[in-house]
Design a protein that fits this description.
The structure is a single chain. It contains ten helices and no strands. Helix 7 (130-136) crosses helix 8 (138-147). It is mainly α. The protein is globular and about 40 Å long. The chain folds into two domains: 1-58, no CATH class; 61-196, Cytochrome Bc1 Complex, Chain D, domain 2, CATH 1.10.760.10. Bound molecules: heme C. Residues 95-96, 98-100, 107-109, 111, 114, 117-118, 123, 126-127, 134, 140, 143-144, 147, 149-152, 154, 156, 164 line the site of heme C.
Length: 196
């Protein structure tokens, strides 16, 4: 019921955020949702020029949608490397645990089951390049609207991100295999995880 309550509060907040984010988007990318009214368009275009920098306005490729935006293109997953997973655990506890839990939703999304909804490349790119992901990737944007906290850039190296990924895999194998019970379905009721 604690969760119920939080969810209720969240609905109100979410509506407000949606409005806010919607507003920002309209300004940021010159009226993303089709626009139409000429007066509006001009205004948006003008503001767009100021807000400028406009990384936002470049459409994502299919690959970016699936694998996220960042340095990681291809991750090969073999048998779990225990030593690597252990290193990942250390980094995770130091730099992620403040916001993330593997087995439940916290300040941030649950991560024990993240590989059920995201590709490994996406996970690593989110870790390595959160600012751009939050600015441009529709899934990350939606989570931002929901959690209202910006995942910070933690200055993680690619090797560390890979180790964290291994840690998540190792934990999913052990405890998280049962993620269709309780917590799993809770996460599934969230907005962006492909509804399972
Ligand atoms: C200050 C809190 C905070 C810290 C610290 C943090 N994150 Fe996040 N993370 C978030 C939030 C909040 C989101 C959801 C998107 C958003 O709002 O930024 C997120 C999203 C993610 C996602 C995407 C989840 C999904 O379902 O798509 C991954 C993967 C992730 N974080 C991994 C990590 C890892 C690994 C670390 C440590 C290196 C870390 N995060 C540190 C807050 C945090």
């Amino acid at each position: 019921m604690r969760i119920e309550k939080r969810r209720q509060a969240m609905v109100g907040i979410r509506a407000a955020t949606a409005a806010l984010v919607g507003g920002l988007l309209a300004v940021g990318c010159g009226g993303g949702d089709g626009a139409g009214g000429d007066g509006v368009d001009t205004a948006a275009a003008a503001t767009g020029a100021v807000a400028g920098a406009g990384a936002d306005s470049t459409p994502l490729t299919q690959e970016e949608l699936e694998r996220g935006i960042g340095p990681v293109r291809e991750v090969e997953l073999g048998a779990i490397d225990e030593a690597l997973a252990e290193r990942g655990e250390e980094v995770f506890e130091l730099k992620c645990f403040a916001c993330h839990r593997l087995e439940e939703r916290y300040v941030a999304p649950q991560l024990g089951n993240v590989l059920e909804r995201r590709r490994p490349e996406y996970v690593m790119n989110m870790i390595l390049n959160p600012a751009e992901m939050l600015a441009r990737h529709p899934v990350a944007k939606e989570l931002l609207a929901e959690y209202m906290t910006m995942m910070p850039d933690q200055d993680i190296t690619e090797a560390e991100a890979r180790a964290i990924l291994e840690y998540i895999r190792a934990e999913a194998r052990e405890g998280g295999g049962d993620s269709n019970q309780g917590t799993g379905s809770e996460a599934g009721s969230g907005t962006t995880d492909g509804g399972r």
